[in-house]
Design a protein that fits this description.
38 residues, alpha+beta, 3-stranded mixed β-sheet, 3 strands, 39% strand, SR1P, GapA-binding peptide SR1P
Length: 38
């Protein structure tokens, strides 16, 4: 089980299947991107 985490707000963006427990960090989630684009 893995998860993708937003570096900006630290929220979990997505879960994915993996053999190991993994955390991947994304630059911005859709929520942060839409807030910062306004």
């Amino acid at each position: 089980m893995g998860e993708i985490i937003c570096q900006t707000c630290d929220n979990t963006i997505e879960h994915f299947e993996d053999e190991k427990v993994t955390k991947l960090y994304s630059n911005k989630c859709p929520n942060c991107s839409s807030k910062n684009d306004k």
